[in-house]
UniProtKB/TrEMBL annotation:
This is Protein hit. GO terms for molecular function: catalytic activity. The active site is at residue 99. Residues 5-112 form the HIT domain. It holds the Pfam family HIT. It comes from the Bacteria. One of its GO terms (biological process) is nucleotide metabolic process. A motif (Histidine triad motif) lies at residues 97-101.
Amino acid sequence: MSDCLFCKIIDGSIPSTKIYEDDHVYAFTDISPVAKGHTLLIPKQHCQDLFEMPEEVARNLYAAAPKIANAIKAAFQPIGLNTINNNGAAAGQTVFHYHLHFIPRYDEKEGLGLIWPTQTYSSEQLVEVAESIKAHL
Ligand code: AMP
Ligand code: ZN
C-alpha cells in the first residue's frame, strides 16, 4: 500500500533498523522501545490487522516468531517476553499494517507495566461465551 508506513519500511523508502527478513516477513527495532530489544515482526503482504490476515500469511508470520524471540533472549537474557498485537484504534493500534510486538521483560520496574484486570464468570457464563464464538467458526 503506497501510503502505509510499514509497507514503506519493507520497500526501503523509509529507513528502519532491520533485524531479520525472509520471503514473507520483516523484523526491525521499534523506534520507541518499551524495553531494550523491543522488536516488531510484520508480514510483507499488507494487511491491516489480524481480522484481515489470510491464514497463509499468519502461518508464515508465526513461523518466524520463535526465531525472533530466541534471538532477543540470547542477546539480552530477559527474564520473560510478551508478544502483543493491537487490533483497532480502541485496542491501541496506531500503525494499520499488522505487527507483532516482542517486548522483553527485565524486572518489574523496567519496561511494560501490564495491567490485566480480570472478571469473574460462572461456568455457565463461560459456556455461553464459548458457544457464541463457536457459532461463527
Ligand atoms: P501499535 O500502537 O501497536 O500500532 O504500535 C505501533 C508501533 O510502531 C509503536 O510501538 C511505534 O513506536 C512503532 N513505530 C512507529 N513508527 C515507526 C518507525 N518508523 N520505525 C519503527 N517503529 C515505528
Ligand atoms: Zn502496509
